[in-house]
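pinned: reference chain
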Amino acid sequence: MESGRNKIIINGSHFSDLPGFYDEVSSVLMKETDWKIGTLDGLDDILYSGFGVFESGEEIEIIWKESQKSKEDLGLELTRNFYENKIRQGKPFNIELIQQKLDDLLSGKGQTLFEILVEIIESHKNITLILE
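pinned: its structure tokens
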């Protein structure tokens, strides 16, 4: 492992739901800004830009401590609620797409929020994610 690689720690003991995850990530990735992450797309955008904590494209390591707790917290139940809330809200959400994701989740084929978050982080080639 390169010693110069920037390490960022997300602590799963600091949150138990998606807004809590966003707060935790905002606090470690966006120290100098008032803006907070509030969506999955927003998380993806922040990981591209770095917002001063790291340079765009810089090799970084994200260590997700207590990831097993997060995997349970952001699991099936919370994900189902997440999709059901979007369906209830209606516009601007694509209800058919969200219903499909909910159906996939309930049939065992879909991703939980934890798996979606891991996938978003791992989609950035400059970021190494370590689940602890």
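why pinned: Strands lie at 6-11, 60-65, 127-131. Helices lie at 18-29, 40-49, 67-73, 76-89, 95-106, 113-122.
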